[in-house]
Design a protein that fits this description.
It contains nine helices and 20 strands. The chain is an alpha+beta fold and about 375 residues long. A six-stranded mixed beta sheet has the order 6-7-8-3-9-10, with helices on both faces. Strands 13-12-11-14-20 form a five-stranded antiparallel beta sheet. The protein has two domains: about 230 residues, 3-Layer(aba) Sandwich (Rossmann fold); about 130 residues, OB fold (Dihydrolipoamide Acetyltransferase, E2P), CATH 2.40.50.140. Helix 2 crosses helix 3 and helix 2 packs parallel to helix 4.
């Protein structure tokens, strides 16, 4: 009998999962708590453990140690069919001999004792939410890829589960359709107020749809936070480099502690930072990494930290990405100006508050952060 544990709708507690007799650590001491009105994204590169974590929640994999609780019940040892979850896979497989209505109703026919009328109402209510009411009598092969994906979502939604698990459901779709469905999945989650756990390797997708993002790498959770927090306040160098396009500029330097400040010396520039805003006391003489987002670099300002030559300009429409070269470095800057040309030499500056410092182990040392705007606070509160 499953036992009551936590109040969170999904509670992953010290979950560890290995393969090949323990040689491959897919999930290493994972702890994630998800409320019943959250859309949480598991984000990371291939092999980071995000899909394995999702499969452990679903019961498709059994963890070596740790617990999975759903709606306050410990389901770690329960088979998938007894867990009140719906799993939407990357490849939507519909039954070709059944209509859209019959595909959506399939789970109800197999797993519930609802009356025919109750099933009909559920299917039609679900189809209306997904905007496919007029397609209920059509065959799957007459639908577009996006319409088929909606039917796959409908087949999960109609079961009214406690938890939705989605494993890269939009990765095979074209960019425009993917953008549309990303918006729709947000709206859907808010409408049904059910936990959704969404796996993706696409950082833009994660930033677009997630209430919170769990950044994973090599089986471990690197950081959990809102999209705003993940982007503007990374806890380590991996998160800083993985999130953002173009990636964060990383420049190697050395720390010299002098009384109440630390001087960071690189082969491009030197700057000082107050000791009180960092964890630098114990890093005197140590090699550190300096991180600067592309948008933190300003070109041809009145002050200058270093000079660089523009190699390539990549227009984005509302902004330009400018790739800079120095004798030893290749950096990227983001600017809304189109007044530059390839081959031009520019003065490059940045504010000390925009600098992130990372230890040799990759841990974030500086504590400076950007204050969220009112819009950020409303979205992520």
């Amino acid at each position: 009998m499953a036992s009551k544990t936590a109040r969170y709708n999904v509670d992953i507690i010290q979950l560890t999962k290995t393969f090949d007799s323990g040689k491959i650590i897919a999930c290493d001491d994972i702890n994630i708590r998800i409320d019943d009105d959250e859309l949480v994204v598991l984000l990371g590169p291939s092999g980071s453990g995000k899909t394995t974590a999702l499969r452990c929640i679903a019961g498709l994999e059994r963890p070596d140690s740790g617990k999975v609780a759903i709606d306050g019940l410990d389901v770690t040892d329960e088979p998938p069919k007894t867990r009140d979850i719906a799993f939407v896979f990357q490849e939507t497989t519909l039954f070709p001999h059944l209509t859209v209505r019959e595909n959506i109703r399939f789970g109800l026919d197999r797993k519930t004792k609802l009356s025919t009328e109750e099933k009909k109402q559920r299917v039609e209510r679900t189809a209306k939410k997904l905007g496919i009411s007029e397609m209920l009598e059509r065959a799957p092969d007459t639908l577009s890829g996006g319409q088929q994906q909606r039917v796959g979502l409908g087949r999960a939604m109609v079961m009214e589960p406690d938890v939705f698990l989605l494993d890269e459901p939009f990765s095979a779709l074209d960019a425009n359709l993917r953008d549309q469905l990303q918006t729709e999945i947000q709206q859907l989650q808010k409408a049904i107020e059910t936990s959704m756990i969404f796996v993706t390797h696409d950082q833009n997708e994660a930033m677009t749809i997630g209430d919170r993002i769990v950044v994973m790498n090599e089986g471990s959770v690197q950081q959990i936070g809102t999209p705003y927090e993940i982007y503007n306040d990374p806890e380590n160098q991996f998160v800083a480099e993985f999130i953002g396009s173009p990636s964060t500029n990383i420049i190697e330097g050395e720390c010299v502690v002098e009384r109440e400040e630390a001087r960071i010396k690189t082969d491009l520039f030197t700057f000082s930072i107050p000791i009180k805003s960092t964890k630098l006391n114990s890093f005197d003489g140590s090699k550190l990494s300096v991180g600067l987002r592309p948008e933190a670099l300003s070109l041809d300002s009145s002050d200058s930290q270093f000079r660089a030559t523009i190699d390539i300009i990549e227009p984005l429409g509302d902004a330009d990405v400018v790739y800079l070269e120095t004798d030893e470095h290749r950096l990227s800057a983001k600017t809304d100006s189109s007044a530059y040309s390839e081959g031009q030499t520019v003065q490059v500056d940045f504010a000390d508050d925009d600098v992130w410092l990372f230890s040799p182990d990759g841990d974030r040392l500086s504590t400076n952060t950007i204050e969220p705007t009112d819009r950020d606070q409303q979205r992520y509160s």
